[in-house]
Design a protein that fits this description.
The structure is a homodimer of 445-residue chains. By secondary structure, chain A is an alpha/beta fold. Chain A has two domains: 110 residues, Roll (Urease, subunit C, domain 1), CATH 2.30.40; 289 residues, TIM Barrel. Chain A is built from 16 helices and 19 strands. In chain A, β13, α9 and β14 form a beta-alpha-beta unit. In chain A, α12 packs across α13. Chain A is globular and about 65 Å long. Chain A starts with a strand and ends with a helix.
Chain lengths: 445, 445
């Protein structure tokens, strides 16, 4: 009998390792930061014993959810400006607000709120691109969240950098500091094909390859962006990036709303990962990505929430539910994006898309212990016929009961254990009051 | 100083009586089943006193949400068959299951689950069309839910009726029994323009007018249905119903996905209410209703969940959020269906669409005390800049803290007070096991 640190039980355990299988009365054994075994409770209890067993009655156990594209710190701009034309939203609200507020203390407090929201919603890994990732990394680590943090690279000067070279130096320092960390994975995040020159893209790629880290970029989010790239480079963004030698399996491309059939083939052939940010794309009226076509072509696609200023929450269960319904109507096929595939996107495929497939995204012996447990003893989850369907079409982020990241229990009974939630809310309220006074005062003038 | 039975306080009170106004530090005074006053807490506490004051810190107070179209008892078929072609779903799963299981005991237990789910999600009125409304009425009333219950009328024989005349007799008995009740409002529900003959439609209309009750029907849900009516009657469904003299302000039409511009004009001119069932329409791949065009034409539209077999929950907050995002992308206009209008649909407009606008749907003196309070002290609702945006884009059904229907507190601290939730879940589990054994056994054979 092997002693382990934790056993997580569930009426159903869904390992998401490729098959449709559900393990009834299942359990996951955790030793240190790793999964030591997955099976029926009968099997697990013959091999492992632990003083710490999380009960499984009325619970479904899944791998932690993957948020494949976000800007975590933007939670502090949640609802600051909505229902506006994209240009007004960005140029008159979001950019000026960023310019005024972005600073290490803002990022530290905002990322803490974002991580609290995500952990409570069953997200155990997020893939970020924003400013001051060096600050966000400490926060994510402290709260016990797994994060892939992409240091932003952009040609135009920003509040914090004079140009791309400074961004790249910063990215290299960040990579050197964090590579090898158990929870924080550094990445390089050239902003997009319209805001980065061929030279910047190529230097970003070289930097990523030098250290074996992932690239994270925005791609074909809006029709206007495609027009801009066509005007500048004479070709559409995916073809442009491919000809520049940028695309490869170490690239995560967020959005991919306006990709042609030819471009989908390229994404598949180059093994590029895609983050489908369905709610953000709907809310900003950017369009509806050809998700079913991408999946059919074999592109690796996960779900991304995008930033909370355009969504307005960090909730992969809701992205999954919206996408699984929407693409049925869009394709006029009620069998499109079935519940099992939607759940794959939220877990294993999402992990693969962001380059974390070997470590997380499914419950398998040897993988990191990133595990969530959902309370299904609720009116809206009764009765129970098909657990995949319930997880995708009826479960809510608030049904998440227990969250384990890298072997550490960070949420239990729906409560955050790794930080003081009241204090996080208090800080958010104080920042909100300050920001509101300035932004809404200015907006009104 | 007038003594009242209850005062519900909120950091923000949103009365939804036409303007965009939010009352900061507001309160609603309740006397018996009615609202006695709405204003700032300062104003209310000068006029009213009560031993029962519900605290308002971190709370937003709204009128109860309106579910303008559902088949409540279908919760017992939630997730029984998903991701299937419509014909297979209906003909091989839902209809056979209905045929096997529909009986008074099934309806009583299923409606109890549905009402529990809806109350906990802040729904205080639902507009139903199904079998055995006579059983559902007792359950809804016992749990303290307001319901408009439409007795189904259909030409073809069903398990419980030989034809339309028997349905109409049953409807008349139901109306006589329940008219004048404070919570239960009877209605007549001819199923649709393809399943009811002109004679049945005209008799339904006459019956509704005899007693001054509402009509509830399905309209233009699928493209196939439009083709069927065109073939049978040589015109599209709305024009057919209009020429039959069926349409009027006492009609609630569910779905209206496939309506032409001319038909939208007719719906507006006849003051027909429409239930927009966006999630069901997406999931069944029926299509996307021209909601913005209907609203622009002046049609009264609310949200409906449809039955849980096709949704898969009874959650108006989620319908509201999905619709407000979706229609931005569909119209390519990020200002379409703004948060305030989405919240109007979920409350006042929904109440008007189902003929209950004089009684509920807004917080106004003299209206029924149908009030909900949302807990916004949560990470996903922080910080706070615009409360409408938060309610539509970020709040979840699980954030509902308190629900008052007709002056009775039926949910408090998110817990159902008017019935034993554990017992409801136990019954659902038992029915689920029985149904699964038969249906999934049969489906597998």
């Amino acid at each position: 009998m092997e002693r382990v640190d934790l056993i997580v039980r569930g009426d159903s355990v869904i390992p998401m390792e490729g098959s449709h299988s559900v393990i009834p009365d299942g359990a996951v054994a955790v030793k240190g930061s790793k999964i030591a075994g997955v099976g029926t409770y009968g099997e697990i209890s013959k091999k492992f014993e632990s003083d710490n067993v999380i009960a499984g009655e009325g619970r479904v156990v899944l791998p932690g959810l993957i948020n494949a594209h976000t800007h975590a710190a933007m939670v502090y701009m949640r609802g600051l400006a909505d229902d506006l034309p994209l240009k007004v939203w960005l140029e008159e609200h979001i950019w000026p607000a960023e310019n005024r507020w972005l600073a290490p203390e803002f990022i530290a407090d905002a990322v803490e709120l974002a991580v609290a929201e995500m952990l409570k919603a069953g997200i155990t890994t997020y893939n970020d691109m924003y400013f001051y990732e060096i600050v966000g990394a400490d926060v994510a680590k402290r709260l016990g969240m797994r994060a892939v943090l992409g240091v932003g690279v952009i040609d135009m000067p920003t509040k914090t950098t004079a140009g791309a070279d400074e961004c790249l130096e910063r990215a290299e320092r960040f990579i050197k500091k964090w590579r090898g960390d158990e929870l924080i994975t550094p990445a390089v995040a050239p902003h997009s094909s319209y805001s980065c020159s061929p030279d910047t893209l190529s230097k970003s790629k070289a930097l990523a390859e030098k250290y074996g880290v992932h690239l994270h970029t925005h791609l074909c989010e809006t029709e206007g962006e495609v027009e801009e790239v066509k005007k500048k480079h004479g070709k559409t963004p995916v073809i442009f990036l491919d000809e520049e030698g940028f695309l490869g399996e170490n690239v995560l491309a967020a959005h991919c709303v306006w990709v042609t059939e030819e471009e989908i083939e390229i994404l598949a052939r180059r093994k590029v990962g895609v983050a489908h940010c369905v709610e953000s794309n709907l809310k900003l009226a950017s369009g509806i990505a050809p998700l079913v076509e991408m999946l059919d072509a074999g592109v690796k696609v996960g779900f991304g929430t995008d930033g909370a200023a355009s969504n307005n929450d960090l909730n992969i269960m809701s992205e999954m539910s919206t996408a699984a319904k929407l693409h049925k109507a869009v394709t006029r096929d009620p069998t499109a994006l079935n519940a099992h595939d939607a759940l794959q996107m939220a877990t294993r495929w999402g992990a693969e898309a962001i380059g974390m497939g070997a470590l997380t995204g499914s419950l398998e012996e040897g993988k990191a212990a990133d595990i969530i447990s959902i309370d299904i003893e609720k009116p809206h989850l009764s009765p129970q016929y098909n657990i995949f369907s319930h997880m995708v079409y009826a479960a809510r982020a608030s049904d998440v009961d227990t969250v384990v990241v890298n072997g550490r229990v960070v949420v239990s009974g729906g409560k955050l254990l790794s930080a003081d939630e009241d204090e996080i809310l208090l800080k958010a309220r104080k920042w909100g009051e300050k920001i509101r006074a300035v932004e809404q005062g200015q907006a009104a003038s």
